[in-house]
Amino acid sequence: MSNTPSGDERAEKTPGARRRSLVAYLRSDDGDVPLTELRDRVVANNQILLTAIVAAIFLSGLAAGWLGNAPQFAAGVLIIVVAAVSSLAVPWSRLNPSWVAVVPLVDILAIALMRSSDVPGVALLWAFPTMWLSSMGRIWFLIACISVISAYWTTLAVLPSFEFSWAIIVLPAVIIAIGASAYNATKRFVAQRALLDKQSARLGAALRHASRQEQLLTEVLDTVDFGVLRIGADGEVTFVNDALGRFQQRIPGFGKLDYVGEMFAADGQTPLSAADRPLARIARGETFSDMVVWYPVSDSRRAAISLSARRLTDADGQPAGVVLVARDVTEERTALRARDSLVASVSHELRTPLTSILGYLELALDADDVPAGVHRQIDVAYRNSERLLGIVSGILAASTASRLSAEITISPETHDIAQLLRSSASDLSQLALERAIRIDVDDVAPAPAFIDPARVRQVIDNLISNAIKFNRDGGTVVLGTSTDGVHSSFLVRDTGIGLSSADRERVFERFFRAESGVPGTGLGLAISQEIVRAHGGDITVTSTEGLGTTFVVQLPVTAEVAASDGAATDAATRVAPDERGQP
After folding, report:
1. Can you tell me the mean pLDDT for 264-289?
2. What is the pLDDT of residues 380-396, one digit of tens each?
3. Are 551 and 479 contacting, i.e. CB atoms less than 8 angstroms apart?
4. DSSP summary character for residue 444
5. What is d(CA 175, CA 95) in angstroms, rounded to the nearest whole number?
6. What whole-number distance in Å separates Cα of residue 470 and Cα of residue 459?
7. How do residues 194-253 score in pLDDT, each as one tens digit?
8. How many CB atoms lie within 10 A of CB 404?
9. Is-contact 527 398, C-beta < 8 A?
């Protein structure tokens, strides 16, 4: 590719390009009117203005009767009229722009003839061709001044009544001043025009860029499968993408401010009041995420829509409306229902044979002819069967709950947590020995609590078994207790792989599994949390990825503390329900 600059580029780099005259501008386009056509108009307007003034003087001379003594004046008027006709008849757009200068030069000659008739004040007419020529550039400014001054002095010289005075330099000075003013005014006009042209080009480029961005954004939003609705600061809907249009076809009136159809909460059963509807909340200035609303599609079917609202601000930080994002989660919610139904069915089917097994084991334990060694083995099988039945019952309770919180039934009594920790550590010691993991119970001290021993034992077993499963071979599991007379706590710390920050936030969600490769159902910690909260306690987790994890469980010591803590937990749950709960 050649690096030689084009003609336009060379022109922009030369000093003359910055001093382009009006004639140079008449070589290009000017918006809606082509400047070639504008050139014809400029020539005609300038000449007709001068012709009109000369005609007025001529007519006044006829009325006054002095034209009979001024034949040169009539000749000058005739020349100007001919020049005016030429300005209208000649196609100046087809000629070189410099030919335009012929008309004002002829005007200078015609005015000189009229001035030679010794008519007072006619010399002032030289201002018109002077301004015209000066607007065409520096050279034409000099030509205008020289031509007019020369014509003026020549006419003075041929007049018989000429007398030398300082007046002969007044008109030349005025002509030079008028020409200089016209030349400078044209330069400023040209500079302003160039600046406006650049600004117009930049604005045009910015407009085209904004249009392309808007088109791209619209195309992207029209290809996604979630609906986008924008409501302006005045409350009017200003944007709807294709996906939202499909929602509106499926759910008549969806996304409209005046929608009055039925809406149901995340459980699919509770009707939403007018104040709790999404658009009503948006009107109050609220924002929300993943609010699931069920809309009737037909008499027998409903659609679940997940809604998120975010407020917008303009460049000045002022409110600019709201964006509402809608996603169809009907299939997801249906799948969650099917999954929970399956878990509940399996848990129910497991509980029946486990109950039978426990009955027969209990009969075997009550028999008098069972040897002592066999009795101990049956007792271990019986206790583990009881634990398994408790786990199955917990899974069944979690799967049938309408929200994330399971409806756990407990029978609390005052019991020592230390006893439960030592017993669980003893039962799981064989599992730990298989991987050379040591269970440290040195910090386990008596810690009374008002608890259901079987339920809390289920929590302890789950935490210790997790600490073993997610530990490193040869690692350590540390158990400890503490009490202040109001609350008793115990901790389970491991030296395992730890949890990432994202996993820590979801570790108590049902069916959540961290990317560790360790098999499991993802229900243990969720059920443990619900058991602890059912006691009015709390469970927390701290973890460092690669170093280990610590779970701390706090439980009430007395029934009074348990009652107050439980009421506070229930209130917090009611104030901030999880909208992701399935229907």
Report:
1. 82
2. 888 888 777 777 766 66
3. no
4. -
5. 29
6. 16
7. 899 899 899 999 999 988 888 887 787 777 778 888 888 777 777 888 887 777 777 777
8. 18
9. yes
Contact (Cβ atoms closer than 8 angstroms) between residue 78 and residue 98:
no
Structure token digits, residue 333 = 């919610």
Q: In b/e form, how buried is each residue of 564-581, taking b as 16+ CB within 10 angstroms?
A: ebbeebeeeeeeeeebbb
The contacts of residue 77 (CB under 8 Å, 6+ apart) are 54, 55, 58, 110, 114
State how far the Cα of 170 lies from the Cα of 233, in Å rounded to an integer: 67
Those residues whose C-beta lies under 8 Å from the C-beta of residue 553, and which sit 6 or more positions away, are: 459, 463, 489, 490, 491, 532, 537, 538, 539
Cα 450 to the chain's mean position, in Å? Answer: 52
Highest mean pLDDT among 45-49, 264-268, 360-364: 45-49
Cα–Cα–Cα angle for 371, 374, 375, nearest 5°? Answer: 80
Please check whether residue 526 is in contact with residue 510, taking contact to mean a CB–CB distance below 8 angstroms. Answer: yes
**Dihedral in degrees, nearest 10, Cα atoms 218, 223, 226, 231:** 10
Q: What is the mean pLDDT of the chain?
A: 78
- Residue 416 is encoded by which pair of tokens? 């020592």
The pLDDT of residue 330 is: 81
Under 8 Å between Cβ of 544 and 498:
yes
- The DSSP symbol for 323 reads E
In one-letter notation, the amino acid at residue 476 is T
Name, in order, each residue with C-beta under 8 angstroms of 450's C-beta and a sequence gap of 6 or more: 412, 413, 414, 535, 555, 556, 557, 558, 559, 561, 562
Residue 495, classed as helix, strand or coil, is: coil
Residue length, the chain?
583
Structure tokens at 167: 């007046």
Residue 479 has pLDDT above 90, yes or no: yes
Q: Are strands 288-296 and 438-443 parallel, antiparallel or unpaired?
A: unpaired
Q: What is the pLDDT of residue 353?
A: 76
Least Cα distance to 303 among 292, 312, 288, 289 occurs for 292
Q: Residue 403: which pLDDT band, with cuts at 50, 70 and 90?
A: very low
Residue 217 φ/ψ, nearest 5 degrees: -60, -45
Q: Is the dihedral of CA 370, 371, 376, 377 positive or negative?
A: negative
Q: What is the pTM of this model?
A: 0.40
Write down the H helix ranges in 65-169. 71-89, 102-115, 127-134, 138-158
Separation CA 431–CA 438 (nearest Å)? 10
Identify the pLDDT of residue 347: 65
Q: Which residue has the tokens 């408790």?
A: 390
Predicted pLDDT at 89: 86
SS3 578: coil
